Amino acid sequence: MRDTLERDGYDVTTLSDPTQAVATLKRGDYHLVLLDLMMPGVDGLTVLGELRKVDPDIAVVIFTGYPTVDSAVESIKLDVSDYIRKPFGVDELRRVVERVIAKRGLQRDREQLLHQVIGANIRRVRKELALTLRQMARRTGLSVSALSQIERAECSASVASLHRIAGALGVRVATLFGDF
Predict the structure, then answer these.
(1) pLDDT digits (tens, 9 = 90+) for 21-77
(2) Which helix (H) or strand (E) holds 82?
(3) Contact by Cβ (8 Å): 91, 63
(4) What is the number of other CB atoms lying within 10 angstroms of the CB of residue 139?
(5) How many domains does the chain have?
(6) Domain shared by 76 and 156, yes or no
(7) Fewest 10 Å CB contacts: which of 18, 21, 55, 77?
């Protein structure tokens, strides 16, 4: 999760000791907490209750491999932003985080969002056409590495590169921008 969110442009702090969550929250400026319900030594709902005492407005997303009606109800009472069942995919994680961030009115870097939209649209169309990155590289004259970085929003594509990619995918360049 950390790697995915960092690649998406988020500043991420991770803790291996859940008992440090409250102290960490007090020391930093955080907007969102991703919290597992089952952690060593402490219950996630207990941590959530303690976090709410420190910052009643912070967005919290609960994830768990052991969902129950009781834990979902208790999470709702503690005003969680979302409750996700494990296992979940990277795309679901991204959607949930984006939705929570948007709902809270927190702005992300618009340029980074544009790179993510373009990358996701390229990947989506490429997969719909069952093309590999190697095949795309042959069709576009771009390296596999460059295409991979563009899809993961790790670099910006030039207009010429976007034109080549759109041509290789058989779509208009505007399609790559989606609703942005």
Answers:
(1) 999 999 888 889 999 998 888 889 999 999 999 999 899 999 998 888 988 888 888
(2) strand 82-85
(3) no
(4) 15
(5) 2
(6) no
(7) 77
Helix then strand then coil, in percent of the chain rounded to 5, is 55, 10, 35
For 105, other C-beta atoms within 10 Å of its C-beta total: 6
Mean pLDDT estimate for the chain: 90
Question: What number is the average pLDDT over the span 105-109?
Answer: 64
Task: Please report the sign of the dihedral spanned by the C-alpha atoms of residue 145, residue 146, residue 151, residue 154.
Answer: positive
Structure confidence at residue 109 (pLDDT): 65
How far CA 101 is from CA of 74, 97, 157, in Å, comes to 22, 6, 26
Nearest Cα residue to 59 out of 94, 30, 21, 93: 30
Q: Write down the pLDDT at residue 98.
A: 86
Gap between the Cα atoms of 38 and 44, Å rounded: 6
Please give the structure tokens belonging to residue 15: 């803790």
CATH classification of the domain holding 154:
1.10.260.40
Task: Verify that 88 and 159 share a domain, yes or no.
Answer: no
Looking at 103, 128, 151, the residue that finishes a domain is 103
State which amino acid sits at residue 127: K
Domain C-terminal end among 80, 103, 126 = 103
Helices (H), 55-109: 69-77, 90-103
| Same domain for 37 and 53 | yes
18 preceded by a cis bond (ω within 30 of 0): no
